[in-house]
Amino acid sequence: MKKAEKKSPLKEAPLRNPGQSLDEEIDVLWNDKTFIYFFYIICFFCIAMLDWLHWLTKTISNPTLSTIGFILVLCFCTFKIIQIKKQINQLKLARDGEKIVGQFLDELREDGARILHDIKGKNFNVDHVIISEHGIFVVDTKTHRKPIKGDVRVRVDHDEVYVNNYLMERNPIKQCRALTKWIQDLLLESTGKQFPVRGVVVFPGWYVEPMTGKEDIWVLNNKALPTFIRNNALKLAKEDVHLAFYHLSCYVRAIT
Hints:
Elements: H1 20-56, H2 64-105, E1 114-120, E2 125-132, E3 135-141, E4 154-157, E5 160-163, E6 166-167, H3 172-191, E7 197-202, E8 217-220, H4 225-231, H5 238-255
Parallel strand pairs: 3-7, 7-8
Antiparallel strand pairs: 1-2, 2-3, 4-5, 5-6
């Protein structure tokens, strides 16, 4: 008897999780790039061992050449693996920062907010988008290691961001403005409505010098973000919250 055809019970793709793009990048580094260097090490090690075995059994004269080749490959591959490991550690830090911020945002769901994570664009991604009656907020997470001692704080001076008194080379405020405009344009294109969208740069775990709240881009600690949003004036009706969430979630599922 011919078996009946089956299909998945899931009617749509799942929404993305906080830091999912970083998890995917980490997997590529481990499974693709790191593997090939371990493969080279094992191959040249085997070649060198075979030559030593032949030398011991007097079937060849000298395994020096293959041993030197193995040592050179070992040094090169070890160097590349160390570089990849450092890159992975940095990605893990950024991923964990996104997850922590995402967990803080969950409390806004109690107020009726809708939250999307890891919205992918072309060669970039938006970490979090909060859609609530207080407006739409594009959240860009910046996770940096802190020194054990010294002045550990983040401050903003005329659109420039200083972390531990060092100016950030890649201005996160300008980056966040670009992400905010992209989300606003995406909603305008899909709904035909101009939604109020504000950008937020979040530094999890850092002390961020207070802001007035009137800036077009907020720079905040993750713990302060829910309070800033709740204190913002009501700007969207409930039906607009559902409309914006529906269109953005459709976009996320379409590109997953």
